Structure formats: C-alpha cells, structure tokens
C-alpha cells in the first residue's frame, strides 16, 4: 500500500502519518525529515536544500524526486509506505507515478487534511524544536513544562527559521500557489479523501482510517 498525505504545512500530516503507521504497519517517509537528515550530515543535497528551506521555499523538483525514489528502493520500504510532504508539485506527482509504474506499483490513496489558513499560521509560527533530541513543542498548543527547556533531555529549545511567523506566511503562499493543484490531480484519479484537520487528533485519525476501509 502506498499512501500520500496532502495538506499545508502545519495541517498535521506528520502526526497522522505516525499514528497510521502503527495501525497499518507501513513505513513513514517524511520528505522534511529526509531533507533535515541530509542537512545534518552535510551532504551536497542537504546544503543546496538548506538555502531554499531557510527562505520557506520548495526544494527544486529534481533534487527531491531523486531523494524520494532512492528511499522507496530501500528494503524497509518493500511492504508499503506513508509519504508525508511529497509530492508537493504536479511534476513531482507525475514523476512518482512514473517511478511506481516501472515497479508495477501505484498510489492507493491520497489523504487530504484540510485546515483553514489562520489556524495554520498559528500552528506553524509557534513551533519550538529541541536542540538535542529534536522533539517538537508549540508555544500555545503543546508547551514544555519549563519555558525554553526540553522535557525529555533538558536541552534548550529554539525556533527554526522556517517556523517563524513571516516564514510561515511565505510557506503557505508557496503551498497555495504550487501544491494545491495536486489535490485536483488525485481527485481526478478518484484517489482523494478529504478530512477536517481542525478536529481532535483522534477524530482525524478515525476519519482517515474510514477512508481506507
């Protein structure tokens, strides 16, 4: 099974992907996590991607497509995957279909988590990340027990450049211009299932599982 999560930054794709991963036994592949891993390791892809991500812009299609296709070829992806944050453009969606065709595979469903713009900005602009373990908090929705300190390892928290309000607005602008057409792409193919992402996390998960029955 190959599932795609669609939705703007901050819609909850990562959270729901992890929850469904446990239920379905599929590998969760986050394009954001992969990119950040390349950045930490100082790979050529990571250095190039970093310049785009700091500005809230999308990484060029050819770079992200090569990264995802290589990851799909890994042994641990053989049973199926949950793709979180990819594809983000129509060329990426078409390239994924072409790559899957070569392996006699296909996308089984595109799960769209819909959240209003102002809610997205609130969610994005308040995120804090642990400098040690990488755990993510939120100033409003999920604050740490001690301000500025990670509950898990005591490391200081920081706000990534792409989590600041001005960058969050830019990220959403890029999303609506370049990514929203993918919703129509999968809708035309009868693969789209839309759920309300402003509901409690458990209800969003329930609705997503209903889509797959």
Question: Could you characterize the architecture of this molecule?
Answer:
The structure is a single chain. By secondary structure, the chain is of the alpha/beta class. 48% of the residues lie in helices and 15% in strands.
Query: Strand count, sense and closure of the main sheet?
Result: 5 strands, parallel
The helix count comes to 9
Straight-line distance between termini: 13 Å
| Helix proportion | 40-55%
Q: Which ranges are low-confidence, i.e. pLDDT below 50, for 5 or more consecutive residues?
A: none
Q: In percent terms, what proportion of residues is strand?
A: 15-25%
* Category by helix and strand content: alpha/beta
Strand-and-helix sequence, N→C?
EHEHHHEHEHEEEHHEH
Provide the spatial order of strands within the biggest beta sheet.
2-3-1-4-8
Backbone shape: globular
Provide the residue-averaged pLDDT: 88
> How large, in whole angstroms, is the Cα Rg?
17 Å
Strand segment tally: 8
């Amino acid at each position: 099974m190959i599932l795609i999560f669609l939705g703007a930054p901050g819609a909850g794709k990562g959270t729901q992907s992890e929850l469904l991963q446990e239920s379905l036994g599929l590998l969760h592949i986050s394009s954001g996590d992969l990119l950040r891993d390349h950045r930490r390791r100082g790979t050529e892809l990571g250095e190039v991607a970093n310049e785009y991500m700091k500005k809230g812009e999308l990484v060029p299609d050819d770079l992200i497509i090569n990264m995802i296709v290589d990851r799909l070829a890994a042994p641990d992806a053989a049973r199926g995957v949950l793709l979180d944050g990819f594809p983000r453009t129509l060329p990426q969606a078409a390239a994924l279909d072409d790559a899957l065709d070569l392996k006699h595979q296909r996308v089984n469903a595109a799960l769209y988590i819909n959240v209003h713009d102002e809610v997205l900005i609130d969610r994005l602009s308040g995120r804090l990340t642990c400098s040690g373990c990488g755990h993510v908090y939120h100033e409003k929705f999920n604050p740490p027990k001690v301000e500025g300190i990670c509950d898990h390892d005591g490391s200081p928290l920081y706000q990534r450049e792409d989590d600041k309000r001005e960058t969050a607005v830019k990220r959403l602008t890029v999303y609506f211009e370049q990514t929203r057409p993918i919703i129509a792409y999968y809708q035309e193919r009868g693969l789209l299932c839309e759920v309300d992402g402003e509901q409690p996390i458990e209800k969003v998960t329930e609705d997503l599982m209903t889509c797959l029955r």
